[in-house]
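note to self — DONT lose this again. spent like an hour looking for the file last time. sequence + predicted structure for the chain T wanted, 347 res
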Amino acid sequence: MDDKFFARLKDETPTRVWVNNPTAEEINLALSQGAVGCTTNPAYAGGLLRHAPDEVLPLSEMAIRQSIDDAAVADQVQQLLVSRIAARFTNMYDESGGSLGFVSIQGAPDMDHDAGRILAEARESRALGVNVAPKLPATAPGLDAFETLVEEGSPTIVTEVFSLSQLVETCERYLRASRRGGTRPPFFLSPITGIFGDYLKAVATRDSMDADSSDLELVGVALARACQNLVEHRGYPVTLLCGGARTPFDLTGLVGAPVHVTINWSTFDEVLEGDKTQTRGIDVPIDDAVMVRLKSAFDDVERAFRLDGLDVRHFEAFGPVQHFRARFLDGWTQMREAIAARRSLVA
């Protein structure tokens, strides 16, 4: 067991880790390993229903008694869960001068096409805690809301990033909005690593393609590295917060770079149990031949790595984005259905 990995990561590299969608126990475990923040997504409450129902059901019953609207109850449960996490990271936020200790919250995924709704939910979430950061999709409506939040001085996290085009569009909008607002609030952007590989595996299966799964598992880290290289080349004032990890390599392949990575506790556990004596995984190259094969076989990979690969109008329809969003919708739907079923049992 390499029980010192995360201590070495913190002491020897600029890379930092966050915990994603944790149970109450996992918050404590992640903090003990040096986690500097926490991400949640719209599937968070639905996931807890399966893994830790006792943490969700009392909150849902309380919210059910306060509202007849199942959607409003789902929103409230998500907010209560995030508030619980934010309280655990508040001291870190204060002691770091507001640079660490953020906790993310993202609104209802079935309303992601509505910039006004995204903005309203983000503003509402800011009242949950000084260290609560709205998380918004890197789509046309999401970025419209993002610009307003930046201009207002709000910390933000932009997610669902699967292309260099999305990174450039988001960062350029941040620069314009921050000039208008006269300040540069904390800004994180999330390239999604392992989920990209999951998407390519689904495409390969659908189209009966002969693709090496080990190659597909590298594409997300390769994109995250390309994103960080571009950030450094252009001097964008953003911290990459890489997410969507599926294997330890989605973390270890980035360690040594000045990025943050958010992982489920299960991935913390895999790293702790594995043989991870190499700290600077960023120094281990990805074979150029692999990327040539992937770009040749998958149009979505070729577009993801081109600066002009996507127009902002097409961000939302991009295959990996839709694949990722479907997971959010599934989790959100499960929570809504559980609330509806629970309502009949609540006096």
